[in-house]
Each structure stands twice: as structure tokens, then as C-alpha cells.
Protein: UMP-CMP kinase
Organism: Prymnesium parvum
Amino acid sequence: MLRQAVRRVAALGVGACAGVGACAGVHAQSLAGPPRANKEIHELEFRVSAAMAEKFDAWLPVYLKGLLELPGLLGAKILKPLKPAATKPAVIFVLGGPGAGKGTQSEYIVNKYGYVHLSAGDLLRAERKSGSAQGQLIDEYIAEGKIVPVEITVKLLMNAIEANGGKRFLVDGFPRNTNNLSGWQQVTGDRLRVMGVLFYDCPEEVMEARLLERGKTSGRTDDNLESIRKRFRTYTNETQPILAYYEQQGLVHKIDGTREVEEVWAETQDVINAFEQELLEEPPVTFRVHLHANESLLPFSARVARDVLKEWGEGTVQMSAASYSVSDSIKAFGLDALRSFD
Ligand SMILES: Nc1ncnc2c1ncn2[C@@H]1O[C@H](COP(=O)(O)OP(=O)(O)O)[C@@H](O)[C@H]1O
Ligand SMILES: O=c1ccn([C@@H]2O[C@H](COP(=O)(O)OP(=O)(O)O)[C@@H](O)[C@H]2O)c(=O)[nH]1
């Protein structure tokens, strides 16, 4: 039987060390007597800021390949994550009644922050124009101020998200009813990160005046009084419950949309700045590596600490290390470690 025991545990805060000499002095403590001549596993853990995780993921295998040339090092294995989930694309929903100013503010956000603007209404109108089989159906729904079946809208949104490959999306005018919401949740699962909802609050009489004005030049089939009133009904009956749903989750940022565009924009920026801050503070991604060696922990981990510091600078990557010797018991070991003997 194999006995495997933790022999040494070391913690190296790469970013916190002035140099490897300073780190090496504190990290190696023998927990179970003098080194044996057995095979050892050095488990290295790297905590990498989310913003750098993708780059670190690309760098790590290349670096380890070079490290394998060191005498005494028998093998290396990256345990977790094999491919770290790239930071999920972030989504902000933009909601509010027809004419509340969603499109106007979205355009400002895109210009300043580089978000990708996906207007569900624009996507539906483009699909209608493309002459596809569902074009006629979309046409009827829009003219009636009704909400197009979610299968159509979610597909258009997801196609646009996937085709774009961007990291931050403004989804404008969606989800508009419970059917939209459940359809979206079903399709996206946990692939996207919903940061919150920008909600432009505006009374009907203000929105009506704006839409009638917009109707003079927009060419939209629904910017006429009859369609506008139908849209208001749909908004009150179907979209407001969605706002209540997100409000319960603390995700709604309500902005008074009746003011001048620039005033609304000033408040919009406050909300987006807070989202940006939240995205910067994403939890770090952890990578784990097993090095198989004949040697003791110190030379390898100190060497890696020095290389990581050199490559990534201070504070970006935090590293800790533990060493296990392999002798005659497997009980103390996790499956991950055993797998690394494959
Ligand atoms: N804060 C505002 N004050 C006055 N007019 C506005 C304001 N925001 C938008 N508008 C105008 O009102 C109309 C509707 O705005 P829009 O952004 O298209 O609304 P939505 O996308 O919510 O339907 C547009 O003609 C736009 O120029
Ligand atoms: O998720 C959506 C978004 C829009 N629409 C349809 O598109 C119209 C126009 O929506 P848009 O957001 O472009 O304009 P708004 O009514 O907010 O001014 C709506 O009335 C609906 O008929 C829809 O069915 N589902």
C-alpha cells in the first residue's frame, strides 16, 4: 500500500515578497521529519485576478513545459481549471416604457464605455425586413404593440451575442414579460452574468409626446397614437411585473427619465461606473498544478515564485505551495492528486 503524507506546507504570497530570498526564508517547514528519497508531489496554487485569468491560462502550460527541463522534475499537471471559464459576458438590461429614453441612453453608454448594444426591437425590425418566414408575424405583433413569441427574440439576441464575442452587452427593451424572462433563462442558463437593470421611469403623457414627435421621422409602424396606446397597455400589464421580479433581487436601478437627456445621462453614468467597479472586483480564478519530483519543495517552489513574480509583477498572482511525499498509504490523498500519477 502507498502511504502519502503532507510533509511540508508553504505559502508564498508572490505579490507580497520583495524577492525570492525573502520568501524562501519563511515558507519551508518540515511537518514530518527529514525528506525521504520518495517521489514527491508539489502542489502549487495560483490565485489570479479575473482580468488576467485568460492570459495566465495561456502562459501556464508554456511556462511549465520549460520548467520540465529542470533536473529532478519528472512531470507537471495542471489540475484546475483545465480551461478556466473565461470571465462570463456581462449583461445589463435596459427597461422602461416606450419612449422612456432607453435607446438614447444606450447609445451614450456604447459611445463612452464600449458596450455592445442589442436592442430587441431593432433586431426584430431587422428580421422583419429580411423577408424571413416569421417576418409577417413579427410585423403584426409590433403594429399591435404585442410581445413577439420569446423563441424568436431570444434566438436573435443569442445569435447577436455569440456572433459578437464581446464581454459587455446592453440588452435594450427585453425581457418584456414573464414568457421572455423564462425563455431567456432557459436558453442562457448561467452562461452570462446579469449585472442589473437600468430602468428609465417616465409617465405616459411624457412618453406619448416623445413618441409622436419621433413618429414624424422614425418611419416606425408603431409610432402612431393607436399603437402607442396599445404599447402602453402591454407595458403596464406585462413588463412592469418583470421589473418587480428584478427589484426583488435588488438588481433594478431606477432613473427618472423625464429630465433633460444630459441629466439622465449623468445618473446613468453613476450606475454604469458602479457596474464597472463590480466587474473589476471579480473574484480571482484559482489554478492548481502538481509537479512530480525527486527533490524537495524548496528549490522548485522558490524557482516558480521567482519566475511568476518576474513575469506577472507584484500583486497580480498569489501563489501558495504544499508538498506531499508518496510512500505507503493513499488515504490522506484526494483523487486529484492520485490522478496526477496517471
Ligand atoms: N430625456 C429626454 N428628454 C427629451 N426627449 C428625449 C429624452 N430621451 C429621449 N428623448 C427622445 O424621445 C424619443 C424616444 O426616445 P428613445 O430613446 O428612442 O426611447 P425608447 O428607446 O425608450 O423607446 C426620441 O425621439 C428621443 O430623441
Ligand atoms: O423583446 C421585445 C422587444 C420588442 N418587441 C416588440 O417591438 C416593439 C418595439 O419595441 P422597442 O423596444 O423597439 O421600442 P419601444 O416600444 O420601447 O419604444 C414592441 O412594442 C414589441 O412589439 C418584442 O416583441 N419583444
